Amino acid sequence: MSTDGATTSRTKLPVLETHDLTRAYRMGRDNVTSLDSVTISIQHGEFVSIVGPSGSGKSTLLNLLGGLDTPTRGEVCLNGKNLAGLSENESASLRQHTLGFIFQGYDLFPALTALENVTYPLLVAGMPVAARIQRAVELLQKVGIGEKLHHFPDELSGGQQQRVGIARALAARPLVLLADEPTGNLDSNTAGDILNLLTALVVDEGLTLIMVTHDTEAARRANRVLTLKDGRLQAQGA
User: Fold this and answer.
1) Angle between helices 158-170 and 129-142 (to 10 degrees)
2) 169, β-bridge pairs
3) Count of beta carbons in the 10 Å neighbourhood of residue 3
4) How buried is 138 (Cβ within 10 angstroms: 0-12 exposed, 13-18 middle, 19+ buried)?
5) Residue 151, exposed/middle/buried by CB under 10 A (0-12, 13-18, 19+)?
6) Do 15 and 175 meet the contact criterion of CB atoms below 8 Å apart?
7) CATH superfamily of 5-237
8) In the beta sheet, which residues pair with residue 226?
9) Where are the domains of the chain?
10) What is the per-residue pLDDT across 138-167, written as a single tens digit (0 to 9) for each?
């Protein structure tokens, strides 16, 4: 796999790829393998769902793809760079500028307004005040809650909180969105709205979306479905 990010092409190289990706750990006296020799390649602009029963390794795979966990064996290449070959600062910078994360539990800062939650990653990135406020307002309008800028998370419904989470994930203009059960806490109607929004963003923003889900209806929205069982990749169906 290439580790030269300078020559990465959106059309020629995968945005994410793994080879022999394995994650094992100790549980008491036992060795447990949560992900076993998974090799995948994901292209720019794809919408990929990861499905499988509880304990199949879905979230482990997502965490490894996002550099939030370290493989026991194998490698992850993000936008042409092998994560294992990067320093901690380089890895953090690559994640910050390449990846956006959407969580099932929203993970918003409760003491910050919707606007402040979305501007936070831009503050960390050093963007000037006016520019980050403009970016956050645009995103909150794009996800349909421009009238809730100054509301705190506990003043928003679950669907509205997830829209804030999506806007925050988009703030730094990532290439890839990693979504872990983004509709898991929502009713079916709201879940459908969120899926419609995510599907539209893939097209409108030119994003790659990788989504862990237990919802078969949600999985059908994807261009491709990766099925895991007992830590192994079973299928890569369209």
Assistant:
1) 130
2) none
3) 13
4) middle
5) middle
6) yes
7) P-loop containing nucleotide triphosphate hydrolases (3.40.50.300)
8) 50, 236
9) 5-237
10) 999 999 999 999 999 999 999 999 999 999
